[in-house]
Design brief:
The chain has about 150 residues and is mainly α. About 90% of the residues lie in helices and about 0% in strands. The chain has helices at about 10-60, 65-149. The two termini are about 35 Å apart.
């Protein structure tokens, strides 16, 4: 018999390439999200440090102008942190969307692989059955030859 050939092999190959591409994109998005989360953490730390410096300066006594400068700095950090939180949230949503795409692609690929495995098993059984029939024919022919002699 001829060698097993899965008729959807090219489709399976394409689906595997798509899956790999989606997994790479997902990994890149996760990395980007982690960088944005780290940036947010650093901004929050800067805000806390600025606030601590302001509280310390208040206890030591500062002018109204200095207090306004500190207040302005705190408002600046609050605004930056709010914007960064939105960026982090958007990154998280992109990661989740890409994760869903990866799961869907993985399911498609897995179903094609299962189909290929099933077809390959059917092929193997057909080959085995063919070999058994051939052996039976050879044995029957040998018996017929032996009976004629």
């Amino acid at each position: 018999m001829k060698k097993f050939q899965f008729s959807l092999e090219s489709v399976l190959g394409y689906k595997q390439q798509v899956l790999e591409s989606l997994q790479n994109e997902h990994a890149i998005l996760i990395q980007k999200m982690r960088q944005q989360e780290e940036r947010l953490r650093q901004m929050e730390e800067s805000y806390r440090a600025w606030n601590e410096e302001f509280r310390q300066a208040e206890m030591e006594g500062i002018t109204v102008a200095e207090a306004m400068r500190y207040e302005s700095g705190l408002r600046f950090w609050e605004k930056e942190i709010a914007q960064q939180r939105q960026t982090v949230l958007q990154c998280q949503q992109e990661v989740e969307q890409k994760r869903r795409q990866v799961v869907a692609a993985r399911q498609e690929t897995a179903s094609l692989e299962k189909l290929r495995d099933k077809k390959q098993e059917e092929y193997r059984k057909a080959v085995q059955k063919g070999e058994e029939l051939f052996i039976e024919e050879v044995v029957a022919a040998q018996k017929a030859m032996a009976a004629l002699s």
